[in-house]
Amino acid sequence: MLVQSPVNYISKINLKKRISRRNIKEFLPDDVDFRVELALAYQDIGYESAICGKSYQFYEYASFLIEDNDSTARYRLHIGETVTIITEDENQNFAILRSIFSHQRNDQRFAFIIVDWFETTNQTKLECPVYKLQRTTRFRQIFPITKINTNRTAHFIHCCKDDGCIGGNHDIENNLYIRNLYFFTVI
Q: How far is the CA of 134 from the CAs of 42, 120, 144, in angstroms?
């Protein structure tokens, strides 16, 4: 599904592989008022009020074009990827992309994301900082797709433990991740 871009440097936002309504419960934010967060996300793109009916659809993938000076690059997002988001205080914050969805406002459809935030720990592994994925959060979780920093500066690896992560299936109770500063695979 092609959706509207609220900024002129992002175009051709395409959402793919729709998720059925009966399977969306796992993609909605926990303990967060969905409508309030969606209204804040609309404020990020310049709308003071939003009609927050149930006209949203969830997807597994998103792609879009970004024009920077004289070049154009295609970006792809997948649920479960680590993204960097620039927040109001102009800091880069790391999060895992929990879901991608579109919402219809009047006759336009816009793309949004829901994230789970990382928080720093005082731990390191192989000289790389270890982060903890927050299970509950006091931070916003819904943002317009335009808030993602597309410079791809964050590479995270699940901090597997011998007794929980087997054959590529990660233990969901283990919420520790290593920020890979050296861009190689840690085994």
A: 24, 10, 21
Q: What is the CATH number of the domain that holds 35?
A: 2.30.30
Would you state the structure tokens that stand for residue 122, as one six-digit string? Answer: 């005082």
> Per-residue pLDDT tens for 70-118?
888 888 888 888 888 876 766 678 888 888 999 988 788 899 999 888 8
Q: Is residue 184 part of a domain?
A: no
Check if the beta carbon of residue 68 is closer than 8 Å to that of residue 79.
no
pTM for this prediction: 0.78
* Burial category of 19 from C-beta neighbours within 10 Å (exposed 0-12, middle 13-18, buried 19 and up): middle
The whole domain housing 18 covers 2-179
- Number of domain units in the chain: 1
